């Protein structure tokens, strides 16, 4: 399960900045300069070569103001109805501006390392969390990843992520240009537009080139439309618990939904969380994968014929820490085999034993995930807290209407009282996640 779009509450009370915004026109108050990030492409027999890239901040965080001046189109949790009376006029009259990545958002890069800081105070207010995407060499489009018969690896430091905070790295089936082929979207990928995921988030301010202000709920900060697409969660974690989870959808690319047609994706997904699956000693502080130290995460996408043309049949996880290769944990749940990777059989068994609806199978399972990967995915890295259910689905007991002793309910050691955004933002403002050494290539090629 992932809930990436319920997280930040950066409220800027004066003119120059306002978060949780997005738009389609381009402002000129601050130049957009993407922080550089070195990644690598790898191949068996020839090793890895550097790919200098950059990252871009999601449009939902950016200042949105009138194209003719500096009046906010959106402030705090409210649209300016004098400007934004309807979706069309709001799109035409409002512009996204550039971002000061380190000062306003706590986002920094250093060669191959990206740091996302949790709370950043600055001259105009406070920012909480962030979401960024990897750009391609043109610096105008997103980098597209095709992961079947490939492996993806990165190093991560989650030592400063307590209960209730999620440092996530994942892939979604976004458009390469961020939707700039739509005539209403002049900003595009360069300004971080076009987000979607399997939760069909309704808090995206602009979807398919139109402002999402109809039926806007100021308390929940959501509108009528959702933004759905296939999602592959490589990594959702803090220092307590972690999970990797494919989420298939029965739509292609970004699907703007409303009402009943938002049930197009497997929102819970088929997750592999070692704690939830019965190994309580595998992941965490001073455990087999020790979250007090940095480690490498390797994810392999195996196909039926060991080529990119075959069906996706297995997603396998390996760790490396202090030079030691650590194979993934094995399932230790009564009624389940000792699975150690995500396969259709694992997912069917997990859903049955945990008494969960098997929407993963209903939405096409791994074969559907593979078809989506064939179309290309965008790399997302984010840091967030959860105003919906306090991240309990990742690191505590969830759902709360089931006993903790029921298989699949306990997901980590965090108490069910933990994870409230107002508390973690107050108590852990200096929390951060660091991602580094991002690599993709042939299976067996990304770790030297």
What do these coordinates show?
This is cellulase. This protein has 448 residues and is mainly beta. It has a single domain, classed as 1,4-Beta-D-Glucan Cellobiohydrolase I, Chain A (Distorted Sandwich). The chain is 11% helix and 32% strand. The strands form 7 sheets. It has a 16-stranded mixed β-sheet that branches. Strand 10 (119-122) and strand 11 form a beta hairpin.
Number of helices: 7
Shape: globular
Oligomer: single chain
Radius of gyration: 21 Å
Q: Please outline the major beta sheet.
A: 16 strands, mixed
- Write down the CATH class: Mainly Beta
CATH homologous superfamily - what is it? Answer: Glycoside hydrolase, family 7, domain
Count of beta strands: 29
- Structurally, how many domains make up the residues? 1
What share of the residues lie within helices?
A: 10-25%
Keywords:
three-stranded mixed sheet, 1,4-Beta-D-Glucan Cellobiohydrolase I, Chain A, 7 helices, mainly beta, 16-stranded mixed sheet, 448 residues
What layout of secondary structure does this protein have?
Elements lengths: L24 E2 L9 E8 L3 E11 L6 E3 L7 E2 L2 E2 L7 H7 E3 L4 H5 L1 E4 L2 E5 L1 E4 L2 E4 L1 E6 L8 E2 L4 E8 L7 E8 L33 E2 L2 E2 L14 E3 L2 E7 L4 E6 L7 E3 L25 E2 L4 E2 L4 E9 L8 E10 L2 E4 L13 E2 L1 H10 L5 H4 L2 H11 L1 E9 L6 H4 L25 H7 L4 E11 L6
Parallel strand pairs: 1-7, 2-29, 22-23
Antiparallel strand pairs: 2-3, 3-12, 4-7, 5-6, 8-9, 9-29, 10-11, 12-28, 13-28, 14-24, 14-29, 15-19, 15-28, 16-17, 18-21, 19-20, 24-25, 25-26, 25-27
């Amino acid at each position: 399960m992932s809930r990436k779009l319920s997280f930040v509450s950066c409220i800027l009370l004066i003119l120059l900045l306002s978060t949780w915004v997005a738009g389609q026109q381009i402002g000129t108050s601050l130049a957009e300069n993407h922080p550089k990030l070195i990644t690598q492409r790898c191949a068996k027999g020839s090793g890895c070569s550097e790919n200098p890239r950059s990252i871009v901040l999601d449009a939902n965080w950016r200042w949105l103001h009138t194209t003719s001046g500096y009046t906010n189109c959106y402030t705090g949790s409210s649209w300016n109805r004098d400007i934004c009376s309807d979706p069309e006029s709001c799109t035409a009259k409002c512009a996204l501006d550039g971002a000061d990545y380190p000062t306003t958002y706590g986002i920094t890069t250093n060669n191959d390392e990206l740091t996302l800081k949790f709370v950043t105070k600055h001259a105009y207010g406070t920012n909480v969390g962030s979401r960024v995407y990897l750009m391609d060499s043109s610096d105008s489009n997103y980098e597209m990843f095709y992961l079947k018969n490939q492996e993806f690896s990165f190093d991560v430091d989650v030592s400063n992520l307590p209960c209730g905070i999620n440092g996530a790295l994942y892939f979604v089936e976004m458009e390469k240009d961020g939707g700039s082929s739509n005539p209403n979207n002049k900003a595009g990928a360069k300004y971080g537009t076009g987000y979607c995921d399997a939760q069909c988030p309704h808090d995206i301010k602009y979807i398919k080139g139109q402002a999402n202000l109809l039926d806007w709920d100021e308390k929940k900060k959501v509108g009528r439309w959702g933004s759905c697409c296939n999602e592959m969660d490589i990594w959702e974690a803090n220092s307590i618990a972690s999970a990797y989870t494919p989420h298939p959808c029965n739509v292609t690319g970004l699907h703007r939904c409303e009402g009943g047609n938002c049930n197009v994706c497997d929102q819970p997904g088929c997750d592999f969380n070692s704690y939830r699956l019965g190994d309580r000693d595998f992941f965490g502080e001073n455990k087999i994968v020790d979250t007090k130290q940095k480690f490498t995460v390797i994810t392999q996408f195996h196909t039926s014929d060991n080529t990119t043309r075959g069906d996706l049949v297995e997603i396998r996880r390996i760790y490396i820490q202090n030079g030691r290769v650590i194979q993934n944990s094995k399932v230790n749940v009564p009624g389940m085999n000792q699975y150690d990777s995500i396969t259709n059989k694992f997912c069917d068994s997990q859903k049955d034993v945990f008494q969960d609806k098997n929407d993963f199978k209903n939405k096409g399972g791994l074969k559907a995930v593979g078809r989506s990967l064939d179309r290309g995915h965008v790399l997302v890295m984010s840091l967030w807290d959860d105003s919906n259910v306090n991240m309990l689905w990742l690191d505590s007991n969830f759902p709360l209407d089931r006993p903790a002793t029921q298989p699949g309910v306990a997901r980590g050691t965090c108490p069910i009282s933990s994870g409230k955004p107002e508390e973690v933002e107050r108590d852990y403002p200096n929390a951060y996640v660091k991602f580094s050494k991002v690599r993709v290539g042939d299976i067996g090629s990304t770790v030297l």
